[in-house]
Amino acid sequence: MTSIKEKNIYRKIKKYSTIVIARHVGPDPDAIASQIALRDSIKNTFPSKNVYAIGASVSRFKKFGSLDKINNESINNCLLIITDVPTMERVDGIEGIKYKESIKIDHHPCDEKVCDIELVEESSTSACQIISQLIMNTPLKLNKDIASNLFLGIVSDSDRFLIKYTNLKTFKIVANLIEKSEIDFTSLYDKLYERPINEIKFHGFIAQNLEISKNGLASILITPEILKEYNVDASTPSNMINDFNYIKDILVWTFITLDEKNQIFKVNIRSRGPIINDVANSYNGGGHKFASGARCKTQEEVNNMLKDLDKVCKLYKK
Ligand code: AMP
User: Fold this and answer.
1) Which range of residues forms the domain containing residue 98?
2) I want to staple 34 with a disulfide (CB 3.0 to 4.6 A). Which of 56, 65, 127, 164 is the partner?
3) Which of 156, 292, 305 should be mutated for ligand 1, with most atoms under 8 A from CB?
């Protein structure tokens, strides 16, 4: 059944001739796939509208489709839609755009209201799952490419249906996508999982060098020298963090990557039980209960964050 929010979102989409769709900085497959799928669905439904999916492009994700380059200063009176991002500070590339109304479609926890209409489902695996529902419940159109992107966003953010938010609804939505668009879904996995051999070697390095505390906190500091040795960039560890789930003796695991260019420690954190986003929030970060990220300015901040995460593990064990 169509919800009131879905009806209102469709009405706004129908009303505006220019629509800009943005997502979070440092995008992952759900962020990219959700904005591209929504853009393509709106364009298919209303061919005369100007619809742009914006933000820095990432070569690894070009397989999902291309992003639009626009002159932000020349965009007035548009509808802004942000996907997979809870706050305006983390939206990529909207500086200078004059939007009249805004819509948020997201699955991150957030107490603050930042858009005129907010379709937020914390219990959803992904932004792509929410957009799939929106398309199914309104006259917005679906085709094979749109369904492929939505499917990959759901698979990626649910970590292949492993995360706790995966439920009957998730599978019903996925089944519906496959049925309606007849996507050959197993052939799509290359787009998500194919990687060069040096990344596998880097993965091996992480496995060999994780430090594990007696409370079950695993951590590793990845320096620019290590990135150079394995010929990977500072965003590569993010793609591997989910692979370290289901390891006995590890409750929470974190990769701390020193990004030399931006002089910041980028932190990925995952958990199999303890709630970690409160700690992430205190270190310039945020995210979900069991999947968060943070940014630390100094080694001292990193050490304090590790101590806090270790405490969370200790409490959970008790
Ligand atoms: P990542 O480890 O980068 O895959 O991020 C895991 C989750 O935490 C995602 O939902 C991100 O949107 C969120 N996240 C990562 N970094 C930050 C940050 N600096 N501030 C707020 N949320 C973040």
Assistant:
1) 4-192
2) 127
3) 292
266 ligand 1 Cβ < 6 A: no
SS3 call for 287: strand
Closest atom of ligand 1 to 268 CA is 2
Centre of ligand 1 to C-alpha 182, Å, is: 33
111 and 208 fall within a common domain = no
- Ligand 1 centroid vs 7 CA: distance in angstroms? 30
Rg (CA), the chain: 20
Calculate the alpha carbon distances from 98 to 13, 102, 125, 290 in Å. Answer: 17, 11, 31, 35
Q: Is the CB of 277 under 6 A from ligand 1?
A: no
- The CATH number linked to 309 is 3.10.310.30
Q: Indicate the range of 16-20, 232-236, 249-253 predicted with least confidence.
A: 232-236
> Do β-strands 252-259 and 264-271 pair in parallel, antiparallel, or remain unpaired?
antiparallel
CA of 13 to the centre of ligand 1 (A): 28
> What is the whole-number distance in angstroms between the Cα of residue 284 and the centre of ligand 1?
10
CB count within 10 Å of CB 248 equals 5
Q: Give the residue from 167, 102, 92 showing the smallest Cα distance to 129.
A: 167
Total tally of structural domains belonging to the chain: 2
Centre of ligand 1 from the C-alpha of residue 77, in Å? 30
Q: Which ranges in the chain belong to alpha helices (H)?
A: 4-15, 29-45, 127-137, 144-157, 168-181, 189-193, 197-209, 224-229, 236-240, 277-282, 299-317
Q: Cβ neighbours of residue 44 under 8 Å, at least 6 residues apart?
A: 141, 143, 146
Tell me what pLDDT residue 101 has. Answer: 98
Tokens representing 216?
């079950």
* 218: three-class secondary structure by DSSP: strand
Q: pLDDT tens for residues 256-313? A: 999 988 899 999 999 999 999 999 999 999 999 999 999 999 999 999 999 999 999 9
Same-domain pairing of 176 and 224? no
